[in-house]
Structures are given as C-alpha cells and as structure tokens.
Write a structure and sequence with these properties.
The protein has 251 residues and is an all-alpha fold. It has helices at 7-20, 22-46, 51-84, 94-99, 101-121, 123-132, 136-143, 147-158, 162-195, 210-249. Helix 1 packs across helix 10 and helix 3 packs across helix 7. The termini are close together.
C-alpha cells in the first residue's frame, strides 16, 4: 500500500479548499445557526408557559434543530465529497438529502452504538471503533452502502492503517477545534465590549429567576456555537473527506 496523504498536505490542501469554497459552503452551513436560533427562541417562548408546556416546546425545538443539523451535515458532506473528487462546481442537492435522511441517521446511530458499547466495555475499543467507522457516512453517500454494510466497508478501508488514520484525524481535529475555540473567544470579547466582560453570558442580572438565567445563558451560548459551527464545520468535513479519498487512492 502507498502512504497516506502527509500531514502537511492534508492540512494545507484542506485549508486551501476551505478558503476556495467558503461562500457556497457557508450558504449551506448557515443552517446550523438556524438550528441554534430555534432553541433560543423556544427558550424565550417557553418562559411564561407552565412546566409541561415549556418542556414540550423545548423538545419540539430540539427535534427540529436536530433534523436540520443532520440534513445539513448530510448534504454538506455530499457536496464536499464531490468537489474533492474533482467536481469543483458541484452544488448541494436537498432532494438527495431528504432521500438519504433516514439511512444517514441509521448509519450514525449504529456507529454511535458501536462506539458507546466499546467505551462501556473498555475505553480503548471505543476509541478504536470511532476511527474504524469514521467513514461510514461518506461511504453511504458515495457507494450507496447502508447500515452495517457501510460500517463494515469503513472498517475494511481503515484496516492495517488505523494509527495513520488516527494521527491525521487527530491533527485535523485539533486544527479545526483550535480555530473554533479562538473564534468563540473573539465573539465573547466582542460581546464584552458592549455589555462588559463581567456580564458576558451573565443574563441573570436581568432576571431573579435562576432557571430562566440558566436557560437564556445556554440559549445564547448555543447561538454563538451555531455561528462558529457554520463557519468552521465545513473545514472538519473537508479534512475527513480528504483522508477518505487518500485511503481509497493508496489501497
């Protein structure tokens, strides 16, 4: 087998693609912010409602936001996969996203159950499975394999090169996570300039209701997280797709 894409090439080419496609990717990933805003609005609307009504409203918002996140992740991964394969003008397809919505969720559930089971049994098997099954969602989109077949294909692709894949996922994840953390820090500082650094996220000063304080604070943090995800989540997907295509090319 040929060596995988180098760390430098992975990080460099992934960043170049991120910069090149930032506008079309952001047009799609902005939906992550929409999902966060749903939760924040539900929190505001739920505050005057009785406990049961508030709980139902928040649950509806969580389910709707989760559906938006899954659907957006699906079609974002699909279009990035196509662009990385050479179709630089590929556009996202909402119809295809709806058609593969439930198969995509099923693959994600199976992968999560496998990883959770490995962690419960012993932490190391869970880590091993998280890497071995990392590419199952991409395989679903590219090859049409579903459920356990997608997981098995991902495992076969990683087989014999687990440590190489682990190192590249770790490096690209660190790069993406660092950028997200720094951006979040900048956003908090900007808010602090207007409301005071001691009051950033301290919405309790405007309410004597401790529960309301926590909910509003969590809601605002969720919105900020949605902004950061909308900007940088495409970069994380780009890196994962590049590792996947490198695995295929070097077999």
């Amino acid at each position: 087998m040929k060596p995988l894409i180098s760390f430098g090439e992975l990080l460099g080419s992934g960043w170049d693609q991120f910069i090149r496609d930032w506008k079309p990717n952001l047009e799609l990933s902005i939906r992550f912010l929409g999902a966060s805003l749903l939760g924040f609005i539900a929190t505001l609307l739920a505050s005057p409602l009785p406990p049961l009504g508030a709980t139902v409203l928040r649950l509806i918002a969580v389910l709707a936001g989760g559906a938006i996140i899954v659907h957006t992740t699906l079609i974002l991964t699909d279009v990035i996969r196509k662009r990385d394969a050479g179709d630089v003008k590929a556009k996202y397809d909402d119809v295809r996203g709806r058609a593969l919505f439930w198969p995509f969720i099923w693959v994600m559930i199976l992968r999560s159950l496998a990883v959770a089971g490995g962690i419960i049994a012993f932490v190391l098997p869970g880590i091993w499975m998280s890497i071995a099954f990392s590419f199952a969602p991409i395989i679903l989109l590219e090859n049409g394999l579903r459920g356990t077949e997608a997981l098995a294909a991902s495992h076969e692709l990683v087989k014999g090169r687990w440590w190489q894949v682990f190192g590249r996922i770790l490096a690209s994840g660190f790069m993406t996570g660092l950028l997200m953390m720094l951006t979040m820090l900048v956003l908090v500082m900007v808010i602090g300039l207007f409301v005071g650094f001691d009051k950033s996220f301290a919405l309790a000063a405007t309410s004597s209701n401790m529960g309301m304080q926590v909910s509003l604070t969590d809601g605002l943090q969720g919105v900020l997280s949605g902004i950061v995800q909308a900007i940088f989540l495409p970069l994380g997907v780009i890196y994962l797709v590049k590792i996947y295509h490198s695995l295929k090319k070097t077999r």
